[in-house]
Amino acid sequence: MAISLKVNGATHQIDADPATPLLYVLRNDLALNGAKFGCGLGQCGSCMVMVEGEAVLSCVTPIMLLEGREITTVEGLGTIEEPGPLQAAFIEMQAAQCGYCIPGMMMSAQALLQKNPAPSDEDIRDALSTNLCRCGTHMRILAAIRRAGEVMQSAGMKTTTNGRTG
Ligand code: FES
Ligand code: FES
């Protein structure tokens, strides 16, 4: 039986075992390769996406729990031509080294900023505590998230249901 998944505003009928982790469906069925496979065990955060505004580890979330729910991946935050505030800030602050952890970092950060547009460093560290970066760019990542929060606030941007701002 097909499961209906709403990803970045588009609805897809997915014919897969309902126990399939969302991460595999995103990457293998929908060609959305932003979310990364790191550990597959819910321990690294590289597969993070948002489900209705909450940061969710897609490697341990079966699609049967997601029917009709609003899923946002890093691709939903902006495009190469028009990067969203978080994407632009990560570029501006040169927050990526290898980049593998960055989509997951951005999704945890997006979920945070939607709830708390002016987070303290402690708030950011708490929100990203499940995201690991092996390259150690943590300070630049913190700076990028602070910067994105400032940009969103000064532009008076509102977040929309698919996680984009405008
Ligand atoms: S791949 Fe999902 S937490 Fe590591
Ligand atoms: S930039 Fe390489 S793992 Fe974070």
TrEMBL record:
Q: Is-annotated flag, keyword Repeat?
A: no
Instruction: Give this protein's Gene Ontology molecular function annotations.
Output: 2 iron, 2 sulfur cluster binding; metal ion binding; oxidoreductase activity
Q: Which UniProt keywords apply?
A: 2Fe-2S, Iron, Iron-sulfur, Metal-binding, Oxidoreductase
PROSITE patterns given in the database record: 2FE2S_FER_1, 2FE2S_FER_2
The UniProt entry, under Gene3D superfamilies, shows: 3.10.20.30, [2Fe-2S]-binding domain
Instruction: Give a yes or no for keyword Glycoprotein in this entry.
Output: no
Q: Note the CDD domains from the entry.
A: fer2
Q: Where is the 2Fe-2S ferredoxin-type domain?
A: 1-77
- Matches recorded under SUPFAM superfamilies: 2Fe-2S ferredoxin-like, CO dehydrogenase ISP C-domain like
The molecule here is called: (2Fe-2S)-binding protein
